[in-house]
């Protein structure tokens, strides 16, 4: 797993390649990574913690795999510029997006 505040305040980081072996992303992992633009969550991740993208002012795109079966209520900053949340049909991530007001941001991967 990636621990709490693992990349906090990495303000110059625009992109990141995460290990394919990660199974969870803990709370506030990318807190205040204000230059981060896009994140692809690896296919073995099951849990996405709270506010992982809080303060990521330039984040516009996130890809969430089918493997995810737990997403905390608040993963994005309320002022987020998120434009695309890439998910699979009938996935937990799709249902989470719809339940949390992100239906218009969904882009299907299948």
Task: Itemize the secondary structure elements and their pairings.
Blueprint: E1 24-25, E2 38-40, E3 47-48, E4 61-63, E5 70-71, E6 84-87, H1 92-99, E7 106-108
Parallel strand pairs: 1-3, 2-4, 3-5, 4-6, 6-7
Walk me through the structure.
It is a single chain. The chain has 110 residues and is mainly beta. The chain contains one helix and seven strands. It has one helix spanning 92-99, and strands spanning 24-25, 38-40, 47-48, 61-63, 70-71, 84-87, 106-108. The protein has a four-stranded parallel sheet, with helices on one face. The protein has a three-stranded parallel sheet with strand order 1-3-5, with helices on one face. Strand 6 (84-87), helix 1 (92-99) and strand 7 (106-108) form a beta-alpha-beta unit. The longest helix has 8 residues, at 92-99. 24% of the residues are buried. The mean pLDDT is 95.
Biggest sheet overview:
4 strands, parallel
- Which range best describes the helical content: under 10%, 10-25%, 25-40%, 40-55%, 55-70% or over 70%? under 10%
| Distance between the amino and carboxyl termini | 27 Å
Q: In order across it, which strands form the biggest sheet?
A: 2-4-6-7
β-strand amount = 15-25%
Tally of separate helices:
1
Which ranges are low-confidence, i.e. pLDDT below 50, for 5 or more consecutive residues?
Answer: none
- The gyration radius over C-alpha positions equals 12 Å
What would you call the structural class?
mainly beta
**H and E string:** EEEEEEHE
Total E-strand runs: 7
Dominant shape = globular
Mean pLDDT: 95
């Amino acid at each position: 797993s990636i621990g709490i505040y693992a990349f906090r305040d990495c303000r110059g980081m625009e992109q990141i390649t995460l290990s394919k072996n990660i199974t969870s992303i803990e709370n506030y992992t990318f807190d205040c990574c204000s230059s981060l633009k896009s994140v692809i969550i690896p296919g073995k991740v099951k849990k996405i913690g709270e506010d992982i993208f809080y303060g990521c002012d330039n984040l516009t795109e996130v890809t969430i795999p089918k493997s995810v079966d737990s997403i905390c209520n608040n993963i994005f900053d309320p002022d987020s510029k998120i434009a695309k949340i890439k998910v699979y049909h009938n996935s937990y991530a799709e249902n989470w997006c719809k339940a949390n007001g992100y239906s218009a941001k969904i882009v299907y991967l299948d």
